[in-house]
Amino acid sequence: MHEDFLWGGAVAANQVEGAFNVDGKGLSVADVMRYSYRADHDYKKQVQITSAAIQQAMQQGQDTTQYPKRRGIDTYHRYKEDIKLFAEMGFTALRISIAWTRLFPTGEELTPNPAGIAFYRQMFAELKKYDIEPIVTLSHYEMPLHLALVYNGWADRRLIDYFVRFSQACFENFPEVKYWITFNEIDSIMRHPFTSAGIIPDRTKNLVQVQFQALHYQFVASAQVTKLAHEMIPESQVGAMLTKLTTYPNSANPKDVLATLHKNIMNYFPADVQVKGYYPKLILDYFAKHQIVLDMTDEDKQLIATHTVDFLSFSYYMSLVAAENESGLEMTGGNTIVGGKNTYLKTTQWGWSVDPVGLRISLLELYDRYQKPLFIVENGMGAHDVLTSDFQVHDDYRIAYFEAHLTAVKQAVAEGVELMGYLSWAPIDLVSASTSQMSKRYGFIYVDADDNGKGTYNRYRKDSFYWYQKVIATNGENLTT
User: Fold this and answer.
1) Between β-strands 133-139 and 459-461, what pairing exists: parallel, antiparallel or unpaired?
2) What would the pLDDT profile of 201-254 be if each residue is shown by its tens digit?
3) Which of 40, 154, 235, 419 has the most CB atoms lying inside 10 A of its own CB?
4) Which residue in 385, 422, 436, 358 sits closest to 69, CA to CA?
């Protein structure tokens, strides 16, 4: 890896901070998502929401058992301890998000909450103390619940102005941050519109139309924010983020290949707009065919064309297969999507296909398509970990996963891919995005808390902690145990 390669990990405010009602913070969409682990890994049911469920959650004002993202892992009070552990591993970068509702509790305030500004200033100072570069996501599944209830979230164009105001407050108060990501997995609106965009499905007549419209408004907001960041922090770099849903044909049957191509075109489309600055013709034709008519002004098009992103970041966890007729496929889940299971691959305990070669393929595909710097900002595996009586976690399976994936990363870089860095998801155990459970553990650091929130919340280094420490110290040269 090059000498400026960024090594570290990634978390989201709504999954780690907790303190959901402390220091003036308002409710976010994450604060009304219930614990919903299902043995059948039905992601659509895990992330679904209704108006009635939201009202019920709001009535459960202090409940952090049913609504685990309200408690997270208490990073709000323990961030110094956590950052010290990340520094011990050798991190040169940490991806975090800024909780919109810590700065603007409802999203409609004209000025930010001083306590929220103070918290993040302290966090950035702590990162600077250890020379850890912050990578900041502005919107990571934690928009103000008020904006969802009043405007149906990003279905309304007015959300652009509210988001730009929030972003401007971030740039004004945290000018030391060089790397910004506008929207986490921006394509996820099409899979879970509430957590990604505050869209409440039962308030929406034509959900698909509204999802694409909301996505467009986020494109416009991203362009405005990119322009603003470049003006306010001249040395800043702003990135888009894609969920890389690598999909293979189930067979060499041309019809399966064609079905796969259509899926991949749709997966690329949000990155196409933000990196290239325009809607691909195939997507516009798709809209026409499906009677999708967007509120898209000439000013929107000019903004999108003029203020493209500096880099493309992405998450990668697994790959899937597709076929013309998927009724005969065995289906499996992964990262809030369900697709065909690849019989050539092993799976995690949650059914996610383990495909390190797919990461290499993804890097090559993305770089060939966009010719922009890439940044892996999420990659990892969830597993059941066992804390021994002497407070050890022997997670050889996690080490094997990362060793294979980082080997693939090195091979892609050797082939010419321009890669800014590698951030694991997540470096510390946290509340799962889809299921809101703790028992699905990703970290190099074990957090003593169970699915009901019981435990000491003490932190313990896993075996993988020391392995990743060595990887970073050798700049990725030594991947063996």
Assistant:
1) unpaired
2) 999 999 999 999 999 999 999 999 999 999 999 999 999 999 999 999 999 999
3) 154
4) 436
CA 449, CA 430: separation in Å to the nearest integer?
A: 9
Asked whether residue 8 carries a pLDDT value surpassing 60, the answer given is yes
Higher per-residue pLDDT: 113 or 34: 113
What would the pLDDT profile of 154-191 be if each residue is shown by its tens digit? 999 999 999 999 999 999 999 999 999 999 999 999 99
Q: Residue by residue, what is the 3-state secondary structure of 218-245?
A: HHHHHHHHHHHHHHHCCCCEEEEEEECC
Strand 246-249 relative to strand 237-243: parallel, antiparallel, unpaired? unpaired
Tokens of 194: 């509430």
For the segment 92-105, the average pLDDT, to the nearest whole number, is: 98
Helix (H) or strand (E) segment spanning residue 212: helix 207-232
For tokens 């390669």, name the residue: 5
- State yes or no: pLDDT of 40 exceeds 80: no
Distance (Å, rounded) from C-alpha 373 to C-alpha 312? 6
Q: What is the phi/psi pair of residue 77, to 5°?
A: -105, -10
Distance CA 26, CA 36 (A): 23
Give catalytic residue positions: 185, 378
Q: Which two tokens stand for residue 440?
A: 């699905």
Residue 92 to residue 130: CA distance in whole angstroms: 8
Mean pLDDT value across the chain: 95
What is the C-alpha to C-alpha distance for residues 351 and 370, in angstroms, rounded to an integer?
31
> What letters, b where the CB count within 10 A reaches 16 and e where it falls short, cover 313-330?
bbbbbbbbbbbeebeebe
* Contact by Cβ (8 Å): 424, 379: yes
Q: Give the mean model confidence (pLDDT) for residues 73-88.
A: 98
The dihedral region occupied by 38, where left means phi > 0, alpha psi between -120 and 50, and beta the remainder, is beta
Q: Please write down the long-range contacts of 118-127, taking CB distance under 8 Å and 24 or more positions apart.
A: 119/23, 119/76, 120/173, 120/174, 121/173, 121/174, 122/79, 123/79, 123/83, 123/96, 124/174, 124/176, 124/177, 126/79, 126/80, 126/83, 127/83, 127/94
State how far Cα 447 lies from the chain centre. 21
For helices 298-306 and 207-232, the axis angle rounded to 10 degrees is 50
Left, alpha or beta for 77 (phi > 0: left; psi -120 to 50: alpha)?
alpha
Instruction: Tell me if the pTM is above 0.70.
Output: yes
Q: Considering only CA atoms, which of 119, 109, 164, 121 is closest in space to residue 139?
A: 164
**What is the pLDDT averaged over residues 72-78?**
98
